[in-house]
């Protein structure tokens, strides 16, 4: 893998905060997200801080500044539009698109990106359900809650998967979870490690930790 760019670091920082609800992203999590050594990520965080893109504290992590967030959203937009293109046009599996889009996100020009966006019909979200920032930096709202919060007897339609783990995405595809397929919560006992859902007429056990990463609507 090529050395990540400043923009890619900022995108990962944004996505880590987006997925956890925590503004400060630990350096170790950034390193893991990019497949680099923690020492490499630390040097990058220090460089980003010097440029004014993050507030960085050793042993704690980094938080995007307003300038960093603006640049991050530009890269997030490019990344997620490319994911849609790779899935819809080239028929890549949703488990593959994140890594491929990461390789392409800084190679595509702004003009070409807008042509691709127009060709795709300006999609609101990527194949994993993550909202695509508009050209002005605003974000479409996708009201949802985690599957882990849904009570027994409720119905749901998956709309977003937090994180881009290929193994997780392949697992979810394997059990029949898809954005256009509704499901039902069969059992969700308090303090249990698993819940039971019905997908495509079949009962499936899902670890609550995994269910917390599945956002749903129509609950």
Describe this structure in words.
It is a single chain. The N and C termini lie far apart (41 Å). This protein is α+β, with helices and mostly antiparallel strands and 219 residues long. Helix 2 packs across helix 3 and helix 4 (66-88) packs across helix 5. 42% of the residues lie in helices and 17% in strands.
Summarize the structure.
The chain is an alpha+beta fold and 219 residues long. Helix content is 42%, strand content 17%. Strand 6 (194-199) and strand 7 form a beta hairpin.
Give me the secondary-structure topology.
Layout: H1 6-20, H2 27-34, H3 38-50, E1 54-57, E2 61-64, H4 66-88, H5 97-104, H6 110-120, E3 145-146, E4 155-161, H7 166-174, E5 183-187, E6 194-199, E7 202-207, H8 208-211, E8 214-217
Antiparallel strand pairs: 1-2, 3-8, 4-5, 4-8, 5-6, 6-7
Rounded to the nearest angstrom, the distance between the terminal CA atoms is 41 Å
Secondary-structure-based class equals alpha+beta
Percent of residues in beta strands: 15-25%
User: How many beta strands in the DSSP annotation?
Assistant: 8
Shape: globular
Mean pLDDT: 91
Order of strands, main sheet, comes to 3-8-4-5-6-7
Helical run tally: 8
What are the low-pLDDT stretches, counting only 5+ consecutive residues below 50? none
Helix fraction bin: 40-55%
Largest sheet: 6 strands, antiparallel
What is the alpha-carbon Rg in Å?
18 Å
Q: Could you state the order of secondary-structure elements as H and E?
A: HHHEEHHHEEHEEEHE
